[in-house]
């Protein structure tokens, strides 16, 4: 379990990934995303998660390159979008992302969604990128257990990460258990359910007990569940607040209580219908 903001999790290929980072989904390219990433890095964040689909890789790269922080201290994730899946088009999409980021290599590259009939070819391309050393780790996003099982049948490289929607109303225990059994690190997107969970009386009660906010309780729960997490915000004060979760610990009963709040409610699409 990570103990501070820059603490890392060792992935199944021995690459070290920060357990806590910043997501930049829907953050506008240009000054908005540059300011957000610059703020996060100044606060002490060392993992930045973007994607080809977010259309803000240029700004993310600019902020990283202008930060003055050594490149090997920042962990950069991007993802191949659905339209670009397939072998050749994935290789091309990776090149485009790397060029926009203005980086020599990527730390983690993910398949954004399991496009039926395509994700195996996409994975083959990602294995090539990995074997060539152009990306330090490869993984998937929004994969259910059956997608992972299908991928693993032919994969030469086991995904290092599966990034999925995960919060107290969508705990996806089957996916978490499968990932743990197969040494795939799970990472949570939308960990705060886009704020739609902040008034929950159970969470408010736990937050009051520790003199913390509900978001802090949820993010602490992620960490104690062994799930890496990338809450999104462009507000520097919120970044500080989100990261201030390493000075308290939930009891095992509280972790269980929050897990039992599951309603299988998504804010995003179901990968089976997407």
From TrEMBL:
<dbReference type="Pfam" id="PF00248">
    <property type="entry name" value="Aldo_ket_red"/>
</dbReference>
<keyword id="KW-0560">Oxidoreductase</keyword>
<keyword id="KW-0521">NADP</keyword>
<feature type="domain" description="NADP-dependent oxidoreductase">
    <location>
        <begin position="29"/>
        <end position="262"/>
    </location>
</feature>
<dbReference type="InterPro" id="IPR023210">
    <property type="entry name" value="NADP_OxRdtase_dom"/>
</dbReference>
<comment type="similarity">
    <text>Belongs to the aldo/keto reductase family.</text>
</comment>
<protein>
    <submittedName>
        <fullName>Aldo/keto reductase</fullName>
    </submittedName>
</protein>
<dbReference type="InterPro" id="IPR036812">
    <property type="entry name" value="NAD(P)_OxRdtase_dom_sf"/>
</dbReference>
<dbReference type="InterPro" id="IPR020471">
    <property type="entry name" value="AKR"/>
</dbReference>
<dbReference type="InterPro" id="IPR044500">
    <property type="entry name" value="AKR5G"/>
</dbReference>
<dbReference type="InterPro" id="IPR018170">
    <property type="entry name" value="Aldo/ket_reductase_CS"/>
</dbReference>
């Amino acid at each position: 379990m990570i103990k501070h903001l820059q603490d890392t999790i060792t992935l199944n290929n021995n690459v070290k990934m920060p357990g806590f980072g910043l997501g930049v989904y829907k953050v506008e390219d240009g000054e908005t995303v540059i300011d957000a990433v610059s703020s996060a890095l100044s606060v002490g964040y060392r993992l930045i998660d973007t994607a080809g689909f977010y259309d803000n890789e240029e700004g993310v790269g600019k902020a990283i390159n202008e930060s003055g922080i050594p490149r090997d201290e920042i962990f950069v994730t991007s993802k191949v979008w659905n339209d670009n899946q397939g072998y050749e088009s994935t290789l091309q999409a990776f090149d485009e992302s790397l060029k926009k980021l203005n980086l020599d290599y990527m730390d983690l590259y993910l398949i954004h969604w399991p496009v039926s009939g395509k994700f195996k070819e996409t994975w083959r391309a990602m294995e090539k990128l990995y074997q060539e050393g152009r990306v330090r780790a490869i993984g998937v996003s929004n994969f259910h257990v059956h997608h992972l099982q299908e991928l693993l049948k032919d994969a030469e490289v086991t995904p290092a990460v599966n990034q999925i929607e995960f919060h107290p109303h969508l705990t996806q225990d089957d996916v978490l258990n499968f990932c743990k059994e197969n040494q795939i690190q799970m990472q949570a997107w939308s960990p705060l359910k886009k704020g739609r969970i902040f008034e929950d009386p159970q969470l408010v009660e736990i937050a009051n007990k520790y003199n913390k906010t509900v978001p802090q309780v949820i993010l602490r729960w992620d960490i104690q569940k062994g799930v890496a997490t990338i809450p999104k915000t462009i507000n520097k004060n919120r970044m500080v607040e989100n990261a201030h979760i390493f000075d308290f610990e939930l009891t095992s009963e509280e972790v269980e209580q929050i897990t039992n709040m599951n309603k299988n409610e998504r804010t995003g699409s179901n990968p089976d219908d997407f």
